[in-house]
Amino acid sequence: MSAGRLAILGGEPVVPRQANRVAWPLVTEADEQAVLRCLRSGDFTTFSNPLAGEVKLLEDDWARYVGSRHCVAVDNGTDGLALALAAAGVEPGDEVIVPALSFIATALAPLHIFAVPVFVDVDPVTYNIDVARIEERISPRTRAIVPVHLHGLPAEMDSVSDVARRHGLHIVEDAAQAHGAVYHGRRVGTLGALAAFSLNASKNLPTCGEGGLVNTDSEELFGRVLRSRQFGEVVGDGWRRDYVHEALGWNSKLSSVQAAFARSQLQRLDAYQVARHRNVTCFLDSLRMLRGLRPPSAPSDRSHAWHILRFGVDPEEAGLDGVPAAAFRRALQRALQAEGVPVREYQTLPLPAQPVFRELRGLGPGYPWRLSSRSWSYRPEDCPVAARVVEETFTLQRAHLHPESGPLLDLYADAFSKVFEHLDTVGRIARGAR
Ligand SMILES: *Cc1c(COP(=O)(O)O)cnc(C)c1O
């Protein structure tokens, strides 16, 4: 390919605009038929057909897929996390360990049940929780750890489990980005006491809107999540509603229409993942020789669901001594965007730097933090790696999820090559000279 003038300087972009019109979720005729069948059945809610309705069928299929004994479908992944934490026995004022880099939901879910999130820095290569730093954040009030399989890469679960066992903590996996990913031969969703997945339309297993799935092997935890999903009612096989509410509950039910759509998508999840893995690894391979770029990778003991691709940069390796990594990242990102590659930030702040935490804006005058005998303040400086990752990396999202994104990723690879053939120009942009 030719290395013409950079598009950021007025040259022709490598990726034609229309090439970027990638649909996700991919809606097939089978999906349409599934939704139509549901509409025609009159089965619209979680319990209009509790034994054989779409919600129950999705739960059975997903439990089997993940390899866990039970599944409860819920209205979204965030609520799934909160219900899982509550089921695990997290109480108001308890502390929950979460990574400093994630989607905000990981840290809001504890707040929803009046628990206090405690942030642990992340690993600079995997971007997952840095297990070596968990213990220093554990206090007598710590009750649970929420490892996030960020971007689709399973967290270092053996070490997380060791720490949890030593301190008597529950593990609730945040698997919202990692459907189907495997760690040491087991699918994520089976690696803690409970796990929460998201079915949001942006995720690898999407529904036509919002949804979530909670997995557990424990009969007791399963019963608690089931009860809390529907107004505290006890729900069993052959259940007939008696309007007796045994305990605190929410209304976190999934609609049958969304269950039907997700269930239809689930039938293609493995095939899509195989295609995605092929497309993404081929794309990443073609970027390996670009000096100064750090493409994502997966350790050999686990698989990556490739939900998000995060790229690091190294200005020195790129021959741009003296250019700060953050400035190099911004210049690269702008140059790639000009070439038509939809790269962007994913998370612009580490979680402890979010205003909700810096200002302790919870419920009323400072709850849940007031429930604790300690005085709370969040210091993003305590999580320097997360802060650096946010400044010095960029991501590619969605475009690669489509199973037929291979040709598009080839174009992106050409755009990367072109930009990296003009590193002197990128360096000049980064230095602010142009
Ligand atoms: C999407 C996401 C969630 C929340 O899922 P929703 O279904 O959007 O509520 C939680 N954690 C992570 C890491 C996510 O990416």
Q: What's the structural blueprint in terms of helices and strands?
A:
Blueprint: H1 29-41, H2 54-66, E1 70-74, H3 77-87, E2 95-99, H4 105-112, E3 116-120, E4 142-145, H5 157-167, E5 170-174, E6 182-183, E7 186-187, E8 194-198, E9 212-216, H6 219-229, H7 256-285, E10 293-294, E11 308-313, H8 325-338, E12 343-344, H9 355-358, H10 384-392, E13 393-397, H11 406-420, H12 423-430
Parallel strand pairs: 2-3, 2-4, 4-5, 5-8
Antiparallel strand pairs: 1-9, 6-7, 8-9, 10-11, 11-13, 12-13
Helix pairs in contact: 1-7, 2-7, 3-4, 3-6, 7-11, 8-12
This protein binds pyridoxal-5'-phosphate.
Give short descriptive properties of this protein.
single chain, 434 residues, alpha/beta, seven-stranded mixed sheet, four-stranded antiparallel sheet, 12 helices, 12% strand, binds pyridoxal-5'-phosphate
What features would you describe in this structure?
The strands form three sheets. A seven-stranded mixed beta sheet has the order 1-9-8-5-4-2-3, with helices on both faces. It is α/β, with parallel strands linked by helices. It contains twelve helices and 13 strands. 34% of the residues lie in helices and 12% in strands. The chain is globular, with a radius of gyration of 23 Å. Strand 2, helix 4 and strand 3 form a beta-alpha-beta unit. The chain has helices at residues 29-41, 54-66, 77-87, 105-112, 157-167, 219-229, 256-285, 325-338, 355-358, 384-392, 406-420, 423-430, and strands at 70-74, 95-99, 116-120, 142-145, 170-174, 182-183, 186-187, 194-198, 212-216, 293-294, 308-313, 343-344, 393-397. The two termini are 26 Å apart. Helix 1 (29-41) runs antiparallel to helix 7 (256-285). The mean pLDDT is 95. Bound molecules: pyridoxal-5'-phosphate. Pyridoxal-5'-phosphate binds next to helix 3 and helix 4.
